Amino acid sequence: MADLTLKSVVKRYGTFEIVHGVSLGIEDGEFVVFVGPSGCGKSTLLRMIAGLEDISGGEISIGGRVVNDVEPADRGIAMVFQSYALYPHMTVEQNLSFGLRMNGNPKEDTDRRVKRAAQILRIDQLMERRPKQLSGGQRQRVAIGRAIVREPQVFLFDEPLSNLDAELRVQMRVEIARLHKELGVTMVYVTHDQTEAMTLADKIVVLRDGNVEQIGRPLDLYDDPENTFVAGFVGSPKMNFLAGRVVGADGKTATIELVNQHEAQLKLGLSDAPTPGEEVTVGVRPEHFVDAGKGACDITVDIDVAEHLGSTSYVYAGTGSREPLIIEREESRHGDERRLTVGIPAKRAFVFAGDGRRLR
Amino acid sequence: MTRSGQNRLRSFTLHALLAPLAVVWLFPLWMMAVFSTMPDHGIFSSDVVLWFGTSFTDNVRNLQADTDFMRALTVSVFVGVVYTVLSVMLTSMAGWALARYRFLGKTAVLGIILGTITLPYFVVVIPQFVMVARDFKLANTWFALIVPPLFNSLGVLFMRQSFSMMPPDLFDAARVEGVKEWRIFLYVALPLARPTIAALSIILFLHSWNNYLWPLLISSDRSMFTAPVALGSLVGLTKVSWGGIMAGAVLLTGPMLVVFLLLQRHFIAGISAGAVK
Amino acid sequence: MRHNRTAYAFLAPYLLIFLAFWVWPIINSFIISLHMTRVNPWRFAPGANWSRLFTDPAFFNALKNTLIILVIQVPVMIALATIMAVFLNSPLLKAKGLFRFAFFAPVVVGEVAYSAVFRLMFNYDFGVINKLIAGVGLPVVDWYSNPTAAMALIIMAVTWRWAGYNAIIILAGLQSIPEDVYEAATLDRVSKVRQFFYITLPLLKPVIAFCLVLSIIGTMQLFAEPFLITNRGGPGQATETLGLFLYRQGFGSGNFGYASAVAYAIAALAVVISLIQLRLARDPQ
Fold this sequence. Notes:
The complex is a heterotrimer.
Chain A (H helix, E strand, L loop, with lengths): L3 E10 L2 E11 L4 E5 L6 H9 L6 E6 L2 E2 L10 E4 L11 H11 L4 H15 L14 H14 L4 E5 L7 H18 L2 E6 L2 H7 L2 E6 L2 E6 L1 H6 L4 H6 L6 E10 L3 E6 L5 E6 L9 E6 L5 E2 L5 E12 L3 E6 L7 E6 L8 E6 L5 E3 L5 E2 L1
Parallel strand pairs in A: 3-8, 3-9, 6-7, 7-8
Antiparallel strand pairs in A: 1-2, 1-4, 4-5, 9-10, 11-12, 11-14, 12-13, 14-20, 15-19, 16-17, 16-19, 17-18, 20-21
Helix pairs in contact in A: 2-3, 2-4, 3-4
Chain B lengths: L2 H34 L3 H4 L12 H11 L2 H32 L5 H13 L3 H14 L6 H5 L6 H12 L3 H9 L4 H12 L1 H17 L2 H6 L8 H9 L6 H21 L1 H12 L2
Chain C lengths: L3 H30 L1 E2 L6 E2 L1 H10 L1 H33 L6 H13 L2 H11 L6 H9 L10 H29 L3 H9 L4 H29 L3 H5 L13 H11 L3 H26 L4
Antiparallel strand pairs in C: 1-2
Helix pairs in contact in C: 1-12, 2-12, 3-7, 3-9, 3-11, 4-7, 7-9, 9-12, 11-12
């Protein structure tokens, strides 16, 4: 059984606490992504799971066994580093077999594993080369190969695609997804890129400043964010946030005035009754705006820049002001307009309280 | 004047100033070589001889007769090699520990080692002698020639710097693969530190080869003289072949000069690395 | 990372030697200096050596000699080293390898070998130097019997030996100054000479300071040259340096206690002089 459990895991450097009691459970075979901005603690968490950092508090269990004091090598894990960490003075074949050789693994078994890994990753032609003779993508695959060779219970990835160019990144993303399908092993993947998270994960853990903001499936985070942070983090381009003031609420619906949009009023269903006069934030994704008149309320904006990408356009309004907006529209029908009126559908508008918490 | 004209003038002045300086600088070494090939009566004649003679082998013979120089050379080589190997091992291990681990007392150890650079050797040499010669009665032994000078702090700092500059992910990856620490050191860290080790070895060997004071003190027995000590013992004597002494000087410095010519880069790397901290 | 045991294991061999042959001797040296060691068995007499130090004319002679060498040789050598480094750094120089070899070779040559050569070269009757001097028509110098000449000889020898070493270090410092600083100055029509004095030298200060400290510490311990070239500090004690004095006391007379006190005095002096020198270098100019 290769499930992974974190119970109130804490990390402290001296008196400075950077991970504040994280608890989560990962099931056997799941692909979980830790995502969040730089410094949120995701890499630290990963390294604690790996055993490369000491655990200041709480418990980590792998396959039902508490591994707090177990050496990295004995935890049944394998890790792929952001910098690949290939041994520069060894060939690909030696890189793959190094760990096994050092531990006295029988030669046949080592050869078998190395061959298998090379085949899965399609690097069998590169076995005699040294890392500096390989391309970025090839090096990445060798790094993954090194992990496969260990036949671990849990795979750990520490921002493996950050050093690759955009096109390669897409390719490798697909490779990793394919790998997961083929091997069926539990994978924990750390990234700051929400696209990677959304496309690869079975389950996403959003982290900020050492705290878990939300855990859920990708589409859950997209459709049902817990707070402004998650709402703004997931989805590209970023969700638009409009300042609002509650004008009326009756326990089933609420009317919110959009302060910066010429006092447009939005009425939507809301059971968490906010107090009238309370200041809230309304979130609408760029892709959810509808044509004027087709939504719960309309807003009109002055267009600053329009980007035409062929099948979609992005309209930027209010850039530099307190409330910049991005609106996504189909095709590029609309040429040279200066103003745009769009509608906000009630069902796609999220309301957040002053502290960022989502009101439902 | 044109730009290139200016440059040519500058180049001329540069060479005009530097060339004589270089000649002056090379002069002693040149004379050393010349003297080593001249018979004693030639050296002590009133002619100015600036070119080689033919008496090199004679001088070597004289040298050998005056003091068993070949034996001394062998002693020097043996001591030098063993010293270098041991010192590289010790300093690389210590540098590794200081570079890559957090442990209790690390700052204290680092501080003491840094402190040793500033303290003159003289403060140490007397009690070292007392300890080794008097208390341990180990004068004239290989141990005495090799071990006490092993406390080379620059080597430790040098290796430490080299190891710190290696990407930590590399060692983490090995740890995750279950490779034991000493194997990581031996099979990953050391191979990557090869250029540093090369530079360090040269400097260490040179230091041992030329070391004069300590071997002078600790070896009173002729058979345990290192080459510099053997040579030095002749300098004060009256009935000695100076041609032989010069031949000895050539034998002493020749190899190191050749090594220097071939490995200039490593030498310079070693010396300047210690300085540009 | 908890790895205390492994770290100690790696550190232990070196540390053992270090503690045994460096730390302990330093402490022991101080202890010895507090003993009267002229006769066996040694007697504990804290004042004996230290008070003698302050009134011993031989010590002060050695101190005087060492300071003379220090004050003359070190600045001259550093200046020379800087010039060497600057010239070696010039892109206009041809046969760089040859020049480099010429200046750096002395570093490689051992103290004994070069002392022997110098001793021969400066021989009164048959030394090359005197022959050359006579050839030019100047009066010959008695290098070994004339105290001033002997001192000059030592200074010349030490300068010859160490200028190249310092030049290497200064050269490294020179090469770490980025090109654009000079390019900007040239665009501003600052002459090369001024560039040297107003850009290069100030930027080289830390490197030169480092060389100065190294040289001071080295000169304070000067031993082999006066021992071998001027025949143990001759004429008389005219070139007896502190190093030689220490050797004479400790290993000539076997008076380890006194020699230890002298050693500590040398160390203290070296530190003081270095500090003074560093302080002076830090003065805003």
